[in-house]
Amino acid sequence: MTRMRIRTGERLKEAQNTAAMLTTFNEIDMTEIMALRSKFKDDFLKKHGCKLGFMSAFAKASASALIEMPAVNAFIEDKEIVYRDYVDISVAVATPKGLVVPVIRNVETMNFADIELTLTALGQKARDGAIAIEDMDGGTFTISNGGVFGSMFGTPIINLPQSAILGMHGTQDRPVARNGKVEIRPMMYIALTYDHRLIDGREAVTFLKRIKSAVEDPGMLLLGV
């Protein structure tokens, strides 16, 4: 085992032994965000020099929900709850040497382009083996996108000392009920694993519903509502 694999295993096992982990699920109709990406991806690439992905929408939606629900953005230190008034999102990135989790800082102040540019730069550093400890330190929440590998469903493990992690999965066409009719829509399952010592089910479900609403109607994110 490499040193990175050993350390990753230790952290994952520590999370299982420490947190009261529970996972809740929802699903997102990706129709609108896919249409937005399809319409503007060429202009976005031309102007900003990076591709427009879905991570920026999920990161921005998460930042908005975390500000609204500070318990999900908090952590436990001894017998105290520490709340943050900022959002630093850790994003899991696969590299040839293993999984690393660089941090996008102050996501609540960013727009889509800021997030994509930062994520592109961090991802390149990770793949080049140039990622530094300070690039991965201090995140308040994590997003893991197993969908890029074809995952349909999964339960991510919390990245301690954080209290929650959002799992994105693959988008697949599925029949869903819309206005009394069955339609084929591109759907994604999402999962929130959270520390039940700090976060209750009501907060977790409300948080996921906020993510769902924002991604299904991207205008909410662009207008900051």
Explain how this protein is built.
The termini are far apart. The protein is 40% helix and 27% strand. Helix 3 (55-68) packs across helix 4 and helix 3 crosses helix 6 (201-216). By secondary structure, it is α+β, with helices and mostly antiparallel strands. The longest helix has 18 residues, at 31-48. Strands 1-10-9-8-4-7 form a six-stranded mixed β-sheet. Strands 2-3 form a two-stranded antiparallel sheet.
Average residue-wise pLDDT: 93
Class from secondary-structure proportions: alpha+beta
Q: Characterize the largest beta sheet: strand count, sense, and whether it forms a barrel.
A: 6 strands, mixed
- Total count of strands: 10
Helix content: 25-40%
How much β-strand is present in the residues?
25-35%
Cα distance spanning the termini: 47 Å
Radius of gyration: 17 Å
Number of helices: 7
SSE succession: HEHHEEEEEEHHEEEHH
Question: Any low-confidence stretches, pLDDT <50, length ≥5?
Answer: none
Shape by Cα distribution? globular
Name the strands of the widest sheet in spatial order: 1-10-9-8-4-7
Entry keywords:
225 residues, alpha+beta, two-stranded antiparallel ribbon, 7 helices
Summarize the structure.
The chain has 225 residues and is of the alpha+beta class. The protein contains seven helices and ten strands.
List the helices and strands and how they pair.
Layout: H1 3-18, E1 21-29, H2 31-48, H3 55-68, E2 75-77, E3 80-82, E4 89-91, E5 93-95, E6 98-100, E7 103-104, H4 112-127, H5 133-136, E8 141-145, E9 164-178, E10 181-195, H6 201-216, H7 219-223
Parallel strand pairs: 4-8, 8-9
Antiparallel strand pairs: 1-10, 2-3, 4-7, 5-6, 9-10
